[in-house]
Design goal:
six-stranded parallel sheet; 9 helices
Length: 209
């Protein structure tokens, strides 16, 4: 079946990989095309197999999941990476998203819907475990807190564009873009661009490529 979503499993525990494989084999729309026992092997197989989705363990020997994710994203394999971890710390979630992961799910979750998470990231959505996706105590948590123009500016900020580049794209002055950027950060209670990018992705305020 050509329309199946192809999946690569990267985890240093063979029993975990076997369990995940069995879970996924029950779904007719998914096909596991390979398994890797560490990050380095995961990078190699990602390049060779070019799967649609990579289920990546965060903590592994030889090369951890964060580093492997960065290398795979830089290699432009086109794979969506779903990070699985035992830890729910915000710092790890932030690092995973900044490395290029499209999802972050806790391995210990009793109601883990791995197949559903894989389908979501394959469709371009960001998936975050409810335990790690809780909004921080920020001043503005509603999407409606930002104007349409501010959301447009935010989309370009997440894409890594400078104020000058955004101004050119939206036909505004660089000063106006700077004001929009300041207003967005003030409304959301955020003071660093990296944190703003993570927040925007986490809360679905922008469309991911």
């Amino acid at each position: 079946m050509e329309d199946k979503i192809t999946v690569l499993l990267v985890d240093d525990h063979a029993l975990v990989r076997r369990g995940f494989r069995r879970m996924l084999e029950d779904d007719e729309t998914l096909r596991v095309v390979g398994e890797a026992s560490d990050g380095a092997e995961g990078v190699k197989l990602a390049t060779q197999l070019k799967p649609d989705v990579i289920v990546m363990d965060c903590q592994m020997p030889v090369m951890n999941g964060l580093e492997a994710t960065r290398k795979i994203v830089n290699a432009n394999t086109g794979a969506a990476i779903l990070m699985l971890s035992m830890h729910s710390e915000d710092t790890l979630v932030k690092q995973a998203l900044e490395a290029g992961a499209r999802g972050y799910v806790l391995k210990e979750a009793l109601n883990l819907d791995l197949a559903g998470a894989i389908k979501s990231v394959a469709a371009g959505q960001t998936v975050l475990d409810p335990k790690v996706a809780k909004p921080q105590a920020l001043k503005g948590e509603r999407e409606s807190g930002l104007t349409q123009r501010e959301l447009e500016v935010l989309q370009h900020i997440v894409a890594g564009k400078s104020n000058k580049e955004i101004a050119s794209e939206l036909e505004l002055s660089a000063n106006t873009v700077a004001v929009h950027r300041a207003n967005i950060m003030e409304r959301l209670g955020i003071h660093k661009t990296a944190e703003l990018v993570v927040y925007a992705i986490r809360h679905g305020l922008v469309n991911l490529p």
